[in-house]
TrEMBL record:
It comes from Ibidorhyncha struthersii. One of its GO terms (biological process) is amino acid biosynthetic process. This is THNS1 protein. Its cofactor is pyridoxal 5'-phosphate. The lineage of its organism: Eukaryota, Metazoa, Chordata, Craniata, Vertebrata. GO terms for molecular function: pyridoxal phosphate binding. The modification N6-(pyridoxal phosphate)lysine is found at K345.
Length: 737
């Protein structure tokens, strides 16, 4: 048995309404009394009959925080240590541990949990309760488990001040730090909600965060999405058809042609919350950030952890996933090419297929359409080909790329990444045609309806127009800043600039989102190649495609004139004025240009600066950096390096996004390094580069892909909408029927 007197608010215990009979009941039959108490204060309860279960390491403050939460909710507070274990055992926890030893103690502790029941209470677990699976399963049946996530260094400091040098499960030769790290796997297994707790956060503040987190957990309807082209009046009319995260992942593009964005914006992290992630691994940072961006009703924390672990566990060659490397002076490289297809697209596209498979209904087949200017194609094909076999039977992907608008190695890679549910189609046009064609297909209700009725197949998008593509990119921009803090390059709070080679505006938009969420980014530098429509726009406010023709360059991933994700940013700075966004993009579609009003341009220029790089300067930068450092930049990173050199004011560090591995652009690299002008096949080019022992080494994934047979086998279509739709229908018949 247990008692619940100790932590009830004294003002409640001494109220006249509590008779002596109730006091006796409280001591003799505490569970029954908890029910009486609950019925008296049900109107104040946040969770009804559910319990709020606080979990975390010893020293996390579970007891104190539980007491405060209980007072705020006017509900019973139960401390498992004092109110259950010691009452059940009739001895202190330390005496029991000494009596039976570590292993038996955990079993006895678990048995006590299995006999325990309560409702409408705040329960503070022991630090070792989560190590007993059956006991925790019993607790979760009627409770919301809140993980008080406190950095290990803070816990160590607290335990030292409490003169605690040994905890349950700690054997001779195992340090306190090691056992705390070991326990994390159990905490992560059981929680529903995570609350970040920094070192200097008052218990009262943490208690409020717990309450806010529980409210969010129970109110998924607060996290809805709207179209960038939705008017304010239209929002109130569409309340009955709210879109949630699962919906926008599945649908990709809004029905009105706009892009989905969260109606209430992105979550904000406090400085203390960011600082609590300084010691964390990349995977841990990703888990924390994405939990706040994806409601658990869409993807529970345990499933999200599984997805993140699958995406980044073994598929990346560097244990740091997205390492930050010092280049020279105050310039740092964020290396985003350690994934299986050697570009930054892997960060999203190793995750998105698993998110998509979890979110879509099982009753329908899905064909995912994607347009690529180079790197997205191989990344999306690789990502979807890694799904479980059962998911591959109901999910396929088709990749459209400009047949003559990507590098030879990129093309070979996209063809080599084809699998039984993943195909590439070359289009005799440029990327803008491919992207526009997909948008038109999605908004063609007659065609999409025909596919659904005739073949039971729905269409979905995997380009960065899909909201799920952007979220993982926010993580690496935040992580890069935290790495600089961890390396003692800067103290937390000091600003940095970021410079990003930019075409479709997705990567730089993710950096802007990271800034909104609390990362101290001062300026985002947009780096263009000779297709510099974005640079002109950021400088003048005029987006003008009249008379512009796409110029093939050494950096094909940013050979783009229509930047899709710019629409999301304009919606943001226009205070979510969907009518204005609709007006601008209708004008762009019909007249080939639009102009921002002065106040919006001023807002934009507070966040963004821009510059562009010629082909000659790109190659010269690759040669110069290699000569001085031995490091080889890819062509896109070289574009960003040139622009960073011109625009940075050197008052703070600048993080240059290295978005692809140089191996993907071997002919240009060989030319830049003045090694040889060759016309060999892509595999021979990589072997030649490898013979120079470059830094970093030639990418393993590319070598493996290019060694595969049949690297010329793919479909090619003319730039004709009817032919593209016919190709889609044929592949649906071949795969799903």
């Amino acid at each position: 048995m247990f008692h619940i007197v100790q932590y009830w608010p004294l003002r409640l215990i001494t109220q006249n309404s509590l008779s002596s009979m109730c006091l006796k009941l409280m001591l003799s039959r505490p569970v029954a009394f908890a029910q009486i108490w609950k019925s008296r204060f049900s109107s104040h309860s946040l969770v009804g009959n559910k319990n709020i279960i606080l979990m975390g390491p010893p020293g996390a403050g579970k007891t104190t925080i539980g007491r405060i939460v209980g007072q705020k909710l006017d509900c019973p507070v139960i401390d498992i240590d004092d109110d259950v274990l010691e009452t059940t055992w009739n001895m202190s926890v330390s005496e029991k541990l000494q009596d039976v030893g570590n292993e038996q103690f955990l079993e006895e502790e678990g048995k006590a949990l299995l006999k325990f029941s309560a409702s409408g209470s705040v329960i503070s677990l022991t630090g070792s309760n989560p190590m007993h699976a059956a006991g925790m399963q019993h607790m979760k049946k009627n409770g919301i488990v809140v993980y008080l996530d406190v950095p290990t260094t803070v816990i160590m400091s607290r335990l030292k001040s409490m003169k605690v040098d040994r905890i349950v499960g700690q054997s001779p030769g195992i340090s306190l730090k090691d056992i705390l790290q070991f326990r994390k796997q159990f905490y992560k297994r059981w929680y529903d909600i995570r609350v970040l707790c920094g070192g200097d956060v008052a218990a009262e503040v943490v208690a409020e965060k717990v309450l806010d987190a529980v409210k969010r957990y129970q109110n998924s309807e607060l996290e809805t999405f709207i179209s960038t082209r939705c008017s304010r009046s239209g929002r109130s009319m569409e309340k009955d058809s709210c879109k949630y995260f699962s919906d926008v992942v599945t649908e990709g593009l809004a029905p009105d042609g706009g892009l989905f964005v969260p109606e209430r914006g992105l979550p904000k992290f406090t400085a203390g919350e960011w600082q609590s992630l300084i010691e964390a691994t990349y995977i841990e940072r990703a888990q924390v950030i994405l939990e706040r961006c994806i409601h658990p009703a869409d993807i529970p924390a345990s499933k999200l952890a599984e997805i993140i672990g699958t995406a980044y566990g073994e598929n990346f060659t560097c244990s740091k996933i997205a390492p930050v490397r010092h280049l020279a002076g105050n310039q740092f490289l964020l290396e985003l090419f350690h994934g299986p297809t050697a570009s930054f697209k892997d960060f999203a596209l190793q995750m998105v297929p698993h998110i998509f498979a979890y979110c879509i209904p099982r009753s329908c087949n899905y064909l995912v359409l994607v347009a690529t200017s180079g790197d997205t194609g191989s990344a999306v094909l690789d990502g979807f080909s890694r799904l479980h076999d059962s998911d591959k039977q109901r999910i396929a992907v088709m990749n459209f790329f400009p047949e003559d608008g990507v590098s030879p190695i990129q093309k070979s890679q996209m063809i080599g990444c084809q699998k039984e549910n993943a195909w590439s189609v070359g289009v005799k046009s440029d990327f803008d045609f491919c992207q526009t064609a997909i948008k038109q297909i999605f908004t063609n209700s007659d065609y999409t309806g025909f596919l659904t009725v005739e073949y039971g197949t729905a269409l979905a998008a995997a380009n960065s127009i899909n909201w799920a593509r952007l979220l993982p990119q926010i993580v690496y921009h935040a992580s890069a800043y935290l790495d600089l803090v961890h390396q003692d390059t800067i103290p937390f709070g000091s600003p940095v600039d970021v410079c990003i080679p930019t075409g479709n505006f997705g990567n730089i938009l993710a950096a802007l989102y990271a800034k909104m969420m609390g990362i101290p980014i001062r300026k985002c530098v947009c780096a263009s190649n000779e297709n510099n429509v974005l640079t002109d726009f950021i400088k003048t406010g005029v987006y003008d495609l009249r008379g512009r023709k796409l110029i093939p360059t050494f950096s094909p991933a940013v050979d783009i004139l229509k930047s899709s994700n710019l629409e999301r940013y304009l919606h943001l700075i226009a205070n979510e004025d969907g009518q204005l966004v609709t007006q601008l993009y209708n004008q762009l579609e019909n007249q080939g240009h639009f102009q921002l009003q002065k106040d919006l341009l001023e807002k934009l220029q507070q966040d963004l600066v821009a510059g562009w790089c010629s082909e000659e300067d790109c190659l010269a930068a690759i040669h110069s950096v290699y000569t001085t450092t031995g490091y080889i930049l890819d062509t896109h990173t070289a574009v960003a390096k040139v622009v960073a050199d011109r625009l940075q004011d050197r008052t703070c560090p600048i993080i240059i996004s290295s978005t692809a591995h140089y191996s993907k652009f071997a002919p240009a690299i060989l030319r830049a390094l003045r090694i040889a002008e060759i016309k060999q096949n892509p595999l021979s080019q990589l072997h030649l580069l490898s013979s120079y022992s470059p830094l970093p080494p030639v990418h393993w994934g590319l070598l493996e892909t290019l060694k595969k047979k049949g690297n010329d086998d793919h479909h090619v279509c003319a730039a004709d909408m009817s032919m593209l739709m016919s190709r889609i229908e044929t592949l649906i018949q071949n795969h799903f029927m």
